[in-house]
Amino acid sequence: MASSSLDPFRLAFSEPSWDDLRIFLAVVAHGSMNSAAKALGQSQPTVARRIKVLEETLGLSLFQRGPNNLDLTEAGQAIFEAANTMGDAAAVVSRTAAAYRPDPDAPVRITATASVTLFLSLYAAELHETAAPVEIAYIPTRRRLDLASGEADIGLRMRNLPEGSDDLVARKIGQIAFAMYARTENPTAVIAPPEDPTLSRQAAYVAEFAQGRTVAARIGDMPIRYQAAKAGLGAAFLPCWLGDSDPDLVQITKPEGDLIEDVFLVMHRRSRNRPNVARVANALAALFKKNQKALVGA
């Protein structure tokens, strides 16, 4: 009796090779062995052979092969979900290693919220001139990127100092004030953020302001919210440096209390000793100091 090419007992105790799992992840990501081969810089027969070895090692068929398609089997989907976690962990390892042996010519990556990144973009030429010849990369996101694993070199964080790592160093470089702005002094509509008012101080403030007014839209992205307010949709919560600089907008509320937030420049201890990172950090601190009045709505 002929034995199956995928004998479930033959290699029951073998551990799959990470190289084979990496190729498997590439095949799933690119949809075919040929496309995965091109992405990996390998030949299609090599990729097909490594997938076969992986299937034999696991004792499972990972793909349902059709004439023009390659679909995961139920087992293949389960293996993919497990291996994908390993792939994410491997990426973290690679970033962490790179953070300890950085390319001196690599761009210095700054992560900040969209509103802070928009402010930086207005002075990008000035920052470039001050930090030259260092190249700067801007990463606008509300997610706190992991500085320890090398997702970014400098983080501009609002309100509170970061917690949870003794390896992070922070310094306050300024403040940013916020207020409600609209095309008219008595707006009847409000542009609200999408967050639950119980989970965000900004959302709670806007919800209180919206009492007796119509919520015209919910927009989380600050630059888009600004454009909607400028177009006359309603009052929006904006940073004062932006609202005050636009002659089409009127400040409806005064920035005070929780509407004035501290800004901290955060780095990992190893990063602050890199000359290029230190150069960009000093340029950022100088920029905030120079514009401190506009930033707090003075």
From TrEMBL:
Q: Which InterPro entries match?
A: LysR-type_TF_proteobact-type, LysR_HTH_N, LysR_subst-bd, WH-like_DNA-bd_sf, WH_DNA-bd_sf
- Report whether Ribosomal protein shows up as a keyword of the record: no
Q: Write down the PANTHER family for this protein, in alphabetical order.
A: HTH-TYPE TRANSCRIPTIONAL REGULATOR, TRANSCRIPTIONAL REGULATORY PROTEIN
Question: Belongs to which family?
Answer: Belongs to the LysR transcriptional regulatory family.
Mind telling me what this protein is named?
Transcriptional regulator
One of the record's GO molecular function terms: sequence-specific DNA binding
Keywords of this entry: DNA-binding, Transcription, Transcription regulation
Any Pfam family matching the protein: HTH_1
Where in this chain does the record put each HTH lysR-type domain?
16-73
> What superkingdom does the record give?
Bacteria
Question: Alphabetically, which GO biological process terms does the record hold?
Answer: DNA-templated transcription
Query: PROSITE patterns from the entry?
Result: HTH_LYSR (PS50931)
Q: In the UniProt record, does the keyword Transport occur?
A: no
